[in-house]
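Form 7-S
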Amino acid sequence: MPKGGGVSSHTQEQLDHYANQNNPNNDAHQDNLDNHADQLNPNNDKHQESEHK
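Output:
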């Protein structure tokens, strides 16, 4: 059983990554939001053009 008595199939590294991505004060969180916005913006090179053909 993991330390602390909790039941988890995730490693501490995976938990840390999840926490960082969901922390609005963390760069990983902002990068994720920016990437998502870029993908949805038809004026951006990252926009998924296959959906609009």
